Amino acid sequence: MAHDDLSGKDITAVSSAGVSHETAAPGTAVIPSETFENPGFPAHRPRVTDTDPKAEKKAERQVYTFFYLSIVGSIFAIASYMAFPIEDGDTGALRLHTMMLGIGIVLALFGLGFGAVHWSKSLMANHEGIDQRHPVRGSEETRARAVEIFKQANEESGFGRRTLVRNTLLGALVAFPLPAVVLFRGWGPQNENPVEMLEHTFWKKGARLTLDPSGLPIKASDVTLGSAFHVIPEGLNESEHRLEEKAKAAVLLMRLDPSKLKESAERTGWSYDGIVAYSKICTHVGCPVALYEQQTHHLLCPCHQSTFDVTEECKVIFGPAKRALPQLPIAVDGEGYLIAQSDFHEPVGPSFWERSSS
Amino acid sequence: MSTVTTPDTAPAPAPTQTSSQRSSTSRFTEAAANYIDERTSISGVVKEFGRKIFPDHWSFMLGEVALYSFVVILLTGTFLTFFFQASMAEVVYNGSYVPLKGVEMSTAMSSTLNISFDVRGGLLIRQIHHWAALTFIAAIGIHMLRIYFTGAFRKPRELNWVIGFILFILALAEGFTGYSLPDDLLSGNGLRIIDGLIKGLPVVGTWISFLLFGGEFPGTDIVGRLYSLHILLLPAILAVMLALHLVFVVVHKHTQWSGPGQTKDNVVGSPILPMFAAKAGGFFFIVFGVIALMGTFFTINPIWNYGPYDPSPVSAGTQPDWYIGFADGALRLIPPGLEFELWDRTWSFNIIIPVLILTGLIVAVLVYPFIEAWITGDKREHHLLDRPRNAPTRTAIGVAGVLFYAALWGAASSDLIATHFQLSIEGVIHVNQALLILGPIVGYLVTKRVCLALQKKDREIALHGFESGRIVRLPGGEYIEVHQPVDEYERWKLVDYNDYQPLMIRPNAQGKITSVQRLRAGMSRWFFEDRIAPVSPKEIERGGHH
Q: Which pLDDT value is given to residue B7?
């Protein structure tokens, strides 16, 4: 009985199931030579409401009670809208307003819903209805007529004959949406290069480290051992593109026991007396690395759990991020305030295609 | 499609009245119906579809839940558009919510707060909208599982599977764009992740991010753009696809379970008028009611707790809405260190690989019907649903897919799992990574065995009847349990199913065996090697003398 319908011809004698109008190939399906007869519908079982007039009356009462309740719910909702105002800005009033209005609406909806379903299930005639299926494909006649129409259209237009007309038409149809695609270049600013913008931040030589969000400058002496500060560059709050700049310039400032910091040769002098500043923007996909574990000196990104070790120049010790958080070289000015020595020495935030460390 | 009218077996009560008894309402109804029909020929539509039959089963309601929640989304969403302002212009909040008074935020955020705190019923409608969106996506997901596990995607419904799949993707896109509109801290971080994800794509990433956000992240354009997508473009495509989806349901007629009287050539159920219309119409109000109930009593997306978006702060335990979880989880589960610099360019495989895996998962869902059709080579129309046990390999693959998704999804809460159960985050991630690989394999094997075992049980019941619980002691002292044969209706459900056998490789017309055919034969063996054939009448005959 195995059919590997490569030709599709060896399985024409499939119709074993009596009523079938099936001629399509069954593939590797096993068509048993002998099958059970479909026993047909079991005897229809009447519902209580079909046989007991009392039950029918009761169901009817229930249905219209549901619909009455629905009307009550709608009226209750309108009344609540007026009776429980929220103008005074008090959250308790808001909660009450939302709840009363909601209860009214829910009652209106449930009344309608349960009423209609109950009606249909207990009172409407529930004899099985039967539709016959017909093959989805059109009848041979219809299909032949469709083919004929296409042929005639081809004949009358010369679509297949006048090939140059046809091909230029297709070419024109392909080309005409292209200007629309080009128009979307307007989504981005015209004279800016994203790669250049991503390589620089608001930090510059001598910019004071200030508190996020107040913008107050930070004295080195205020940064006690074990503490961590959320930092933005001075003047950021007043800048024209505050959020865009902040998305690159946000910094975490921590003070550790200087003996614990392992600093590489080229970064000596980037920290000040155990105070280090690192970009707060995760090198994975850019969430703020906002969780600082004071005891272990680990920074944790709450979005995807990349973990950075502050004692080892914020290299990644766990999670999907690959690159260490960029370090901001800092110093102290004449008045004892923390300042940046320069901008970051590499682009901050998530990796991008054109990024290179060189 | 079909022009033949239904032979309705139900003895419908004849509603014809003699003209003398007509009341004024019936005269009005008649006049109105006549007026409309003379201008629309709507009587043809009623004749064609008025008594169309819909089969009944609880699992057929899942698609209805999706449809009805979409209607709720449209209704509530339209209300919200009258109050929401999709602008990122900075304002100082001065509404009723005291803790945020004087805080700088975007107009989008401030107008969302106004909807929640100053518009009467605004919070209720906002919450109903959000809950309806969550219900919509959940219902689509479960509906798809129903279609998959019962084989309802088979010919002639493959294209409707594709349309349904597109609807699912559109629903996800609608969800994400809507979620991002209030411009609060949580959704802003979601956008930040999208930005980082896009930037990590090779060659085009940086520029796509630049175009999408109108410059650098976050810019002042994204909320307005997402708004256009959310309320105009995506719903328009969604509505068209939905209409097409339903047209196909009518063209194909609904599938049904195999059962006594229910064959592949008929549809058994209730007619649209009145039964199905009343039931489905009532069900719409019940679905709406349940969603409204959630909107009334359960807070969803309390943006006032999160505050306006700012790239610097973030709260611990950030979570996307649940339906985005699987994507977020994929980003979390990727092993560390997968980023390289090569030819002066950055290759972020920690982004590319998750994106490829997610794309692969989604494409696999899309093409599955075509692959199975190719393996079986079955060109017949299928209108009777498979019980999941009767397609063991398909069911096992489905379970493996669900477990793969579940492992990704669970990973999106790895931090919360760690804090709730006092585990280390590293441990949770590593266990999740193991589950991602092992879960589907174990799930596949177990499911396949369970399906085969259930099929064997079905065979046994069909052959020898069910255990009656009656213990009889034979004269010789032996105890036996009497088996009671099943009646023909019960038996029919156990024996009427599709059975396939593995493909035998045969040379083609040129006498060659192509590699494509080898592949197909291999796949066919994988699918159908372990098979339990349905009981035949002969076996029962023989079984009688057992």
A: 45
CB contact under 8 A, A129 and B341: no
Nearest to B51 among A4, A129, A290 (CB): A129
Comparing CB atoms, the residue among B10, B337, B378 nearest residue A322 is B337
| Whole-number percent of chain A with pLDDT over 70 | 93
CB contact under 8 Å between A32 and B536, yes or no, is yes
Q: Which residues lie closer than 8 Å to B153 by C-beta, 6 or more apart?
A: B147, B160, B161, B368, B369
User: In whole numbers, what is the pLDDT of chain A averaged over residues?
Assistant: 88
A287 at the B interface (CB within 8 A)?
yes
More confident residue, A73 or B482: A73
**Tokens 């051992």 sit on residue:** A225
Give the pLDDT of residue B1. 39
- pLDDT at res. A4: 40
In this complex, is the C-beta atom of A92 within 8 Å of any C-beta atom belonging to chain B? no
pLDDT at A112: 97
Instruction: Report pTM.
Output: 0.91
**What is the C-alpha radius of gyration for chain B, rounded to an integer number of angstroms?**
29
Residue A3, pLDDT score: 39
Tell whether A176 is within 8 A of chain B (Cβ).
no
Using alpha carbons only, give the angle A324, A325, A329 rounded to the nearest 5 degrees: 115
Chain A stretch 45-74, residues whose beta carbon is closer than 8 A to a beta carbon of chain B? none
Size of interface A-B (CB pairs under 8 A): 411
B232 touches chain A (CB under 8 A): no
Cβ contact, residue pair A42, B312, below 8 Å: no
Nearest to A228 by CA among A197, A253, A201: A253
Mean pLDDT of chain B: 90
Residue A10 confidence (pLDDT): 36
* DSSP letter string, B391-406: SHHHHHHHHHHHHHHH
C-beta separation of B353 from A324 below 8 A = no
> Which domains can be identified in chain B, with CATH numbers?
2-50 (no CATH), 53-334 (1.20.810.10), 465-544 (no CATH)
ipTM for the predicted complex comes to 0.89
DSSP symbol at B233: I
For residue A159, which phi and psi values (nearest 5 degrees)?
Answer: -60, -45
Q: Exposed (0-12), middle (13-18) or buried (19+): which is A189, by Cβ within 10 Å?
A: middle
Phi, psi for residue B301 in degrees, rounded to 5: 50, 65
d(CA A216, CA A280): 18
A330 bridge partner residues: A340
Tell me how close the Cα of B544 comes to any Cα of chain A, in angstroms.
16
- Residue A12 scores a pLDDT above 80: no
Q: Which residues of B touch A25 (CB under 8 A)?
A: 377-380
Q: Extract the residue ranges of chain B whose pLDDT is less than 50.
A: 1-14, 17, 545-546
Burial B442-470 (b: 16+ CB within 10 A, else e): ebbeebbebbbebbeebbbbbbbbeeeee
CA A91 to centroid of chain Cα atoms: 30
Residue of B nearest to A73 (CA): B289
Can you tell me the distance from the alpha carbon of B100 to that of B114, in angstroms, rounded to the nearest whole number? 12
Å from B284 to nearest chain A CA? 7
- The tokens for A118 are 């109950």
A319 close to B (CB below 8 A): yes
Asked whether B203 and B324 are in contact (CB, 8 A), the reply is no
Q: How far is A243 from chain B (nearest CA, A)?
A: 7
Tell me the pLDDT band of A2, cut-offs 50, 70 and 90: very low
CB contact under 8 A, B217 and A109: no
Instruction: Please give the Cα distance from B507 to B134 (Å, whole number).
Output: 53
Residues B196 and B217: beta-carbon distance below 8 Å: no
Shortest alpha-carbon distance between residue A333 and chain B (Å):
26
